[in-house]
Amino acid sequence: MNLTEKQKSLIQDLQAQEQLCIQKYTEYENLARDNELKSLFGTIRQDEEKHYNSLSQLLSGTCPDMKVMDNATTNYNPAPTYIGSFNQDDKDYDQYLCTDTITTEKYVSTAYNDELFQFGDPEVRKLFNNIQTEEQNHAEMIYKYKTANGMTN
Ligand SMILES: [Fe+2]
Ligand SMILES: [Fe+2]
């Protein structure tokens, strides 16, 4: 696969975003107060590592056939932690982590959507499309966590 210098540079920018996501989810997995949220951040971090590695493979000249976990969000039904008696500071802090990560996912998802138009190769477009779908799924899972825990109002 032949990539132009401009295309390589776009892929490197996306990879830098994935690197930030990996760092953020690694840190937030440690910082989250609720174990359910720690576990969710850990799951998402693994996806971000997969995205990073897919882009490495693309830069080395082969477009990977990255599969999307279709039912990842449907199957995610977290048991609520912050109902009944709980520590309000913990809830507020975890809510902040959720809001921050949803914002990041929106940004990254938009970046894939924008850069896709710079590539004519259907394989690359499919890869970007699949990664974008997973970023949207990440935001949806975090939103489901917020909803379950009464954090959406
Ligand atoms: Fe990602
Ligand atoms: Fe993501």
Provide an overview of this structure.
With 153 residues, this protein is mostly helical. It has one domain: Ferritin. Helix content is 70%, strand content 0%. α1 runs antiparallel to α2, α2 packs antiparallel against α4 and α3 runs antiparallel to α4. The model has no long low-confidence stretch (mean pLDDT 95). Bound molecules: fe (ii) ion (FE2) (2 copies). One fe (ii) ion binds next to α1, α2 and α4. One fe (ii) ion binds next to α2, α3 and α4.
Cα separation of the termini: 48 Å
CATH topology-level fold name: Ferritin
CATH class: Mainly Alpha
Q: Return residue spans where pLDDT drops below 50 for at least 5 consecutive residues.
A: none
Count of extended strands: 0
Largest sheet: none
The computed structural class is mainly alpha
Q: What is the H/E string?
A: HHHH
What radius of gyration results from the CA coordinates? 17 Å
User: What number of domains?
Assistant: 1
Per CATH, the architecture is Up-down Bundle
What would you give as the CATH superfamily?
A: Ferritin, core subunit, four-helix bundle
Treating each run of at least 4 consecutive H or I residues as one helix, how many helices? 4
* Helical content class: 55-70%
Ligands, deduplicated: fe (ii) ion
